[in-house]
């Protein structure tokens, strides 16, 4: 185990890093990033363990051979084909042992003193024909505190190696040492060319030249097992051992222990901050989009409400035409001449009234037509509104999120909007026009005519009787003549008075019904329009409310992330000053 409590200062630094990792772990748990939470948890548990030195590279580059050469014993399987399918953690032990940690990790012990402060991690090769091998390696690399990258002299710095190095330095920012293996296959001049090639390409990618040590793991293993000092020196394995076991002193290892998780957090935080900022931007865009759609809804509602006034005007025209027809009928038929003529005709006044006033362009039929036209208009436009909502959700929201079950469904509302019960108030109100039923009004007119005729006959009869009575006396009676004249005049005024009275009562009833009809039209249709607008608005606004909630949550995450990021940078600066 690494003696992390060697100094109070180091102990304090380690504790601060551990506390930070625990806070970061809780943060990623809250936001549901299970994968990163697991990585942070692994680093927190690993911080008190020996330094993790990961040996990485393509398969057949000599990774396992290098570990065997360090140990001077073939403890790992090696060969020209992908031989390592698990991550092997090689630590110190009094004897050689091996046990599986899980499906992808194996722990081995070996009695090498250098392993007391360093755990050597052998990884499956990258660019393996077995895709899982590379995935296993990449899933572990965050735990590396220093990386020995083994590349082969017979195919150095391949495209897959470039990709893997970008992961190492770009995302994880790990301390890196290049081992150029299999130099026994190349001349000194060729080795120099290869080193220069690697340095130039690496510099082009990362802006600095790497530390490169040329070795022959094959010669190193042979030398250590045979005790050949000359071959051992030629293999350069001692230079590697000196670098990792001697130059990396305690303080260097402590720096790597502290800085490795902090650099990891810095890169993760930067990536996450970009993603969170993008989420906020998406939320703002969607909220603005919803608000613009709600504005379109309000505009459409106003258009529909204004259009309904057209039907109010048509209804007023129906009642105006009815009053005109009644006036014409009363003026033409409700008088002495027409009454006398009708009395001797086979057709009655009420039949004429029903036919001429309520027959052609029946007001009730006209009102029902207007109501049905208005219902068709509202239903048609309600369907257009639902189509707008449906298209909006598909085009503006479902591009980024899968539409859930709460989304408006055009088909559902199209079919339900035509259900008769939705307009029951409108259709039932039409029955109020029974107050102006043709037969009832014809009967009223007939009674007016009958009453007028009887009154006329009586009064005119009295006037005639008075005149005849006075004429038999051969004595002119001025008073009698005046009375007879008055009675005769009253008789002739009966029809105009009754006609005026009936007309006044009829107009009052028509105006009252017209007002109720128009108020009903406006109220009922606005209610139907408002109900649909509100329903659609509620469905659409639920997306806005969800985006608002998302934005608030993301902003909270950004604030928490900023705090953690500042703590991380403070610890990095503190470690740098030390």
UniProtKB/TrEMBL annotation:
It comes from the Bacteria. This is GTPase Der. It comes from Candidatus Scalindua arabica. The chain crosses the membrane at residues 453-472, 478-497. Keywords: Membrane, Transmembrane, Transmembrane helix. PANTHER family: SARCALUMENIN, TRANSMEMBRANE GTPASE FZO. Residues 54-105, 115-182 form the Dynamin N-terminal domain. CDD domains: DLP_2.
